[in-house]
Amino acid sequence: MLKSKDINIETRERRGEGIYWNEKLMKILPASAHYWWSLYIDVGYGPKHGADDAMIYLRKAADLGNAKAQYEVAELLMKIQDDRSQQFRLGISESMYKCAAEQIYPDPNAAKAASAIFSVQEMYDKTIFYAHQGVRAGKDSSAQLASDAFYINNPKSRYKKWGIPEDKERSRRYEIISDYLTRRAHLKPELNVHDLDDIVPLPPAKLPSWDGKIAIQRFEEGPAPAKPSDELVRRLAQQAGLDPNTGLPK
Known about the structure:
Largest sheet: none
Structural class: mainly alpha
Number of strands: 0
Radius of gyration: 22 Å
Number of helices: 11
Helix content: 40-55%
Distance between the termini: 31 Å
């Protein structure tokens, strides 16, 4: 969760920077902009607002398709203490989890929640699908679950009843990914495996050749990009209407 310390409003010249860029974002990615407004308002940053405005923006972001907002709305619904509406809220939350997990860039926690729901319902094909989506979003525990499900070392394992055909190579690849995600947890929230289907697609797709690394790993281990020249920085800043020394609007 974002805290006030995460938003730099200490210096006068930067006080409106977040608002400025979020207004720009509103024209390009309104779902993301609404989500950021909810975070800003929640920590007391931004223009004047009412007591419920953070929740209003969060709901709007979820309606527009922001995966993180959909997950957070689902979690808030399940925290309501009301037995009469429990089943109704459970249905909405399940839909929110699924929607947030099925996106091109899924929410990792939503994918894990959806996987757990279908595991309880003993719908193991969907359990694996949402675990796979969790891996795509960078969830190490989802990768470990998929690895265990495709290769059962222990005959008493709870995964045996899932009826998934054994595939040791698929299991090995998920295990390698799980290990990397665990060791590189400090890279979150950028940590992801968006190239997952090029490494270990779900059956019945055949496994492609693989060198043992994911895209973000190659980027991390690769050479640092060349520093842009001062002339290029000044030219790009001028084109964008920014001060080249501060990066802020003139």
